[in-house]
């Protein structure tokens, strides 16, 4: 009869011991310690990721500035096409006048040079 009684007492003792270990393992200070361990292990990697992201952001900002500057340059070229056409007309007129002057210098009768265009 002592055997079942001893088993009951042993079970009570192991249950109490298990409950005590469970309470100790889940105590708030232990949880904070575990959290501190996790932060200490994770922080260097997170700091490196942050530095990488900042470097990539700087590179991206530089690339964005370059693209915006190139777009602005292209837009200015498109807007200046009027001026290029005007210069082209003036160059054609200058070549025509030069040809007339060369013809007059060689003794040919020059044709009337075209009137200057106002561009």
From TrEMBL:
GO terms for cellular component: BORC complex; lysosomal membrane. Keywords: Lysosome, Membrane. The keyword Cell division does not apply. The keyword Transcription does not apply. Its main location: membrane. It is found in: Lysosome membrane. Pfam families: BORCS8. Belongs to the BORCS8 family. This is BLOC-1-related complex subunit 8 isoform X4. It comes from Zalophus californianus (California sealion). The gene is BORCS8.
